[in-house]
Amino acid sequence: MPDAFPPRSYEDLIRVIHDRYDQMSKTYQRIAVYLTQNPNDVAVMSVNAIGEKTGIHASSYVRYAQSLGFRGFKELQAVFQRRLTTAAPGFDARIKALEDELGAKEDRSDLGFLRNLVVRDLSSLQDLLANISAEQISAAADVMEAADTIYLLGQLRSAPVAELLRYMLTMLGKRTVLLDASGGLATHMAKVIQPRDMLLAISFRFYATEVVNIVEDVAGRGIPVVAISDSTLSPLAKSAQVLFAIPEHEYTFSRSLAAPMCLAQALTVALAARLQKDRESPRIPVVTSL
Description:
It contains 13 helices and 5 strands. By secondary structure, it is α/β, with parallel strands linked by helices. Strand 3 (198-202), helix 12 and strand 4 form a beta-alpha-beta unit.
C-alpha cells in the first residue's frame, strides 16, 4: 500500500528502498537495484528509455514509484534530479566525455573492442574515486590491521580479486587464508574463523550462494566482515561492517574487474601504511627482485 507521504530527500528515499527490499517482488528488486546504482542516469533519462535499457516495462517503474507514495515516476525522478545538482556525472556521461576527449569513433575492429573496454574501465575507475570515501577505506584498513588472520572469500568472477589480495597481504607478512572453493571445503574452513579474525568477501551479481551463506554465518558469530560488492542492496550488505559498493555497468563481452582490483590494492596500501608506520611511501614487497 502506497505511503501517504513519500520520501522527499534522496537519502530518505534510499533508506525506504533498502528497508523494503526483501519484501519486494523480483521485478521491483531489479528496479530498486537500478535506481540505487544509477541515480544520475535516473535523473536525466525518460522512464521509457530506462525501461528499454533495463528490459523492464516503463509501466512497472510507474507502479513502483506509486508503491513508494509518489503519484508517478516523474515525481520520484524529481528526487534524483535535486540530488544531481551536487553529484558527479553518471557512468554514461563519463563514457561520452572520455570518448569525446579521445576522439573515439564507431570501430568494430579488434583494436576498437580494446578501446571500448579501456574507456569503460576508465569510467569505472572515475566512479570508484567519486563514490568511495576515505572513511570507508580507513575503517576497513583498521579492521584488517587488528585481525589476527584475514580470511579471503571470492568465487567465480570474484576469485581473481581474492587471489590478488592473498598475494599482497602475504607479502605484507599478514596471516592470510584463502577460503578456496576447490574440494568443497570453503564452508568448513570458514567454521574455524575466530572473533579476533576477520573475513574479506567479494561477490557480484549473480552472487555465489556459498559466499553469501558463509558471510551470513560469519557475521552471525560476531566476526567482522568487510565486503566488496556491486550494490548497497547486495546480499552481503546487511552482514558487512564495512561495505564497498562498486556498481557494475553493462559490457558487451564481460564485466570489468578494473575497479575492484584497484580498490583491493588501495586497501592493502592503506594497511601497509599502518603496519610499516609510513604514511608517505608504504610499500608492498614483491617475491622477485633484480
